[in-house]
Every structure is written in C-alpha cells, then in structure tokens.
Specification:
alpha/beta; six-stranded mixed beta sheet; 6 strands; 47% helix; 15% strand
C-alpha cells in the first residue's frame, strides 16, 4: 500500500524557501513514492504565509501552489475536528489526514503535533523520518 501523506504548512514553506530535507520529503510525492493530499485550508495558509511573511509576488505564489497541486490530491474538510492540540491552526492538518485516509502527517511542529506521535492510526513524523522510511 502506498503511503498517503499530509504535509503541514511549515514543511511546505521550509521545502519551498530553504529546500533541504523538507524539500526532499515533498519530492517523494512528486516522484510518486508517496501520495500527497492537502485541503483548501492548508493551501490558503500556505499562500498567506508565502505572500505576507516571505513577500512572494502573487504570480510566484500561484506558480508554487499550481505545481504542488500537480502531485497532491485535494480533499474537502468540514472544519469540525477541534481541540486535537492546543493550537487551533493544527486542527485542519489533522482533519485533512483523517478525511484523506492519510498514513502520515509530516510536520516540523515539535510543540503541538509531533508530541502526539499519531492520531487515529495516522503517524505524525518529521520530514527526516519520512525520508528515512521511503527514500
């Protein structure tokens, strides 16, 4: 069975801006070694961070997101899953994984998500962990 992966916004940003291990973990989806899934809420946060925090021009942001959608399936979430961590922004990541039947959530969030280790059978791992397992 092919792994199904939700990439947290922080991994998408790190992979886009700095490359390295986060980029390599996202490339697993691009190369078809894992199936990437996302949702509009994650993409909206990703777009907002790229444009406001990292000053990407709208055309470059659109290009990055369009590229990402070339190898990620989008699922629809209802935003009903609440309180999984103390950070409400993380609920969309977990709900996307639940709705999409993800085997993994890839995140750099050491404060809220990684301490959970898993949620309803979905492993919560770092980009390095995913690479070590599927590269």
């Amino acid at each position: 069975m092919q792994p199904i992966v939700v990439y947290d916004t922080n991994v998408l940003i790190s992979g886009t801006i700095w490359g390295g291990v986060p980029y390599a973990s996202i490339e697993l989806a691009k190369r078809g070694k894992v199936a990437g899934i996302t949702c509009v809420e994650i993409l909206d946060e990703f777009e907002e961070k790229l444009t406001t925090k990292f000053n990407f021009p709208p055309s470059q942001t659109l290009e990055v997101i369009t590229n990402l959608l070339g190898y990620h399936q989008t699922v629809k979430i209802t935003n009903r899953l609440k309180g999984i961590t103390t950070d409400p922004d993380d609920d969309k990541i977990v709900e996307c994984a639940v709705v999409g039947g993800a085997t993994h959530i890839v995140t750099g969030d050491r404060k809220h998500l990684l301490p959970l280790k898993s949620y309803q059978g979905t492993l919560i791992v770092t980009a390095a962990d995913l690479l070590a397992q599927y590269q």
